[in-house]
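Justification of resources, computational component.

The compute hours requested in this renewal are based largely on the per-chain cost of generating structure records like the one below. Each record pairs the submitted sequence with a full structure-token output. That output is archived, and it is also reused by downstream analysis tasks.
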Amino acid sequence: MSDIENIILTACATLIGGVLLLIVSELFKALVIVPAQKTREQIQVVLSQVDFYFNRLTNFFSAEPTEHEIDIIKSIIQDLRKAATDLQSKYELVYMKKPLVLLKVLPSQERIDIAFTDLMYLQSSILYEGRRDYIVNLIEMNDNRIKRVKAALTGEAIPEKLKPEEQRRFI
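The structure output for this chain reads:
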């Protein structure tokens, strides 16, 4: 083979290798990097929502909320439910989760499930003054769920789920 043929074959092999590398890197970017980045962004949204509504989730609304308070309650419910479902759906889009979990880029499926469950609990446990007798309607339980969501998404030790005390009535 002449030098010119070797140069042409080397150029073709380099070109084919470069195109294959481009295709593989774009697939990796589309299937792993971008979904992982969107999941990380959603984790920040969840943490922001929990911090933003912390005061509302750990204090009682009046026994008969005003129209403005009802709008606030609906907003809290909608925002927390959307944050929870978006977190779970964006996490499901990520391929190759195990290496990303091992590298601590993403939380594990178990931690996402804990955050999802606790967010769904929080959005359905808005506290009303007139409903203090319900077990699930306690400030301590909401505070515990908020701590669990934060710990699950930040990699900290997850506190045990607070068990409700015996049902009590405030008269």
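Residues 167-171 have pLDDT under 50 and may be disordered. The radius of gyration is 25 Å.
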